[in-house]
């Protein structure tokens, strides 16, 4: 059913679809009308299913608190000699102790609680006892939490010991890409505004961004609409409206953008040219007047 057909059925004095208990005309009606105008102009617009209610946002924020706490713990304890398996154990122990479930565990057959991607691994690295972090490594630790059915998802990079200037720069610029994207997140803007900002910062610095894997809506489910790419143009892609939550998680490559998937585990993504890749991931809420970072 089209969004508009659903909306037509809600009377001005009916209860709002968001279950706030308020009348539609005092709740989401004006917003829906504004969205409908954008749709008529030919823009991609969000469905109600990905616009979170205040109650849902509170629950998602609780989940995000665990995600942040787990990444903070990793930040304090990661270093030379630590295995990625140990990181996996920390994530499992802490998440469950706080009442959550690590979302990656058994997700489409993923065998561990967290993704750990080292150097030329782009994403979806599988923790194992044989991977010992050594001086000079850069690693992405990607945590996702389910709390009472609500999802959060964010990741950080860590530099181990003595890291080369060129790898440190890759890590730093990748973080700046996320910040540049974040500045473009506001209601009644477009996802493409964010994507172009991320893209331009990477490419202006001589890097490339992986095309095939992107961010995603998140909160009620692990991966929701919209799909979040970075090869997009300002003024295009989905309209941003208050209550949307999605991730910004560009994978920035020092060399070419091309990737391949490990055919032994069907998960781990590598750069084709073997050069390093970095990724940061934040989870952002579109608010009435801008954006709020829920986890990073
Ligand atoms: N942040 C990653 C993503 O959104 C987490 C993947 S977990 C995995 O794709 F289980 F799919 F590996
Ligand atoms: Co994600």
Structural commentary:
The protein has 296 residues and is α+β, with helices and mostly antiparallel strands. Helix content is 30%, strand content 22%. It is built from 6 helices and 15 strands. It has helices at residues 3-8, 29-40, 54-77, 84-97, 165-182, 191-204; strands at 101-102, 115-118, 121-123, 138-147, 150-159, 208-209, 215-217, 224-228, 245-248, 251-253, 259-261, 269-271, 277-279, 282-286, 291-295. Strands 1, 2, 4 and 5 form a 4-stranded antiparallel sheet that branches. β11 (259-261) and β12 form a beta hairpin. α3 crosses α4. The longest helix has 24 residues, at 54-77. The protein is globular and about 65 Å long. The chain starts with a helix and ends with a strand. The model has no long low-confidence stretch (mean pLDDT 96). The structure holds 2-amino-4-trifluoromethylsulfanyl-butyric acid (MF3) and cobalt (II) ion (CO). The site of cobalt (II) ion has 6 residues, from β7.
């Amino acid at each position: 059913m089209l969004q508009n057909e659903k909306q037509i059925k809600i009377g001005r004095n009916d209860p709002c679809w968001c279950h706030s208990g308020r009348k539609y005309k005092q709740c989401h009606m004006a917003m829906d009308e504004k969205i409908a105008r954008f749709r008529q102009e030919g823009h991609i617009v969000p469905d109600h299913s990905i616009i979170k209610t205040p109650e849902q946002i509170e629950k998602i924020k609780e989940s995000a608190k665990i995600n942040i706490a787990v990444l903070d713990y990793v930040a304090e304890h990661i270093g030379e000699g630590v295995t990625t398996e140990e990181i996996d154990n920390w994530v499992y122990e802490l998440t469950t102790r706080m009442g959550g479930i690590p979302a990656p565990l058994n997700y489409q057959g993923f065998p561990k609680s967290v993704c750990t991607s080292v150097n030329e691994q782009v994403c979806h690295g599988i923790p194992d006892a044989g991977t010992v972090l050594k001086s000079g490594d850069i690693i992405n630790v990607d945590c996702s939490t389910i709390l009472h059915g609500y999802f959060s998802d964010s990741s950080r990079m860590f530099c181990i010991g003595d890291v080369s200037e060129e790898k440190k720069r890759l890590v730093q610029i990748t973080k700046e890409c996320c910040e540049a994207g974040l500045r473009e997140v506001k209601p009644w803007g477009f996802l493409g505004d964010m994507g172009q900002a991320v893209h331009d910062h990477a490419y202006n610095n001589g890097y490339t961004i992986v095309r095939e894997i992107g961010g995603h809506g998140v909160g009620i489910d692990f991966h929701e609409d919209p799909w979040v790419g970075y090869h997009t143009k300002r003024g295009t892609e989905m309209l941003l409206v208050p209550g949307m939550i999605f991730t910004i998680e560009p994978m920035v490559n020092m060399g070419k953008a091309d990737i391949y998937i490990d055919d032994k585990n069907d998960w781990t993504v590598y750069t084709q040219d073997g050069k390093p890749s970095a990724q940061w991931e934040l989870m952002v809420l579109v608010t009435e007047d801008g954006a709020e970072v829920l986890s990073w």
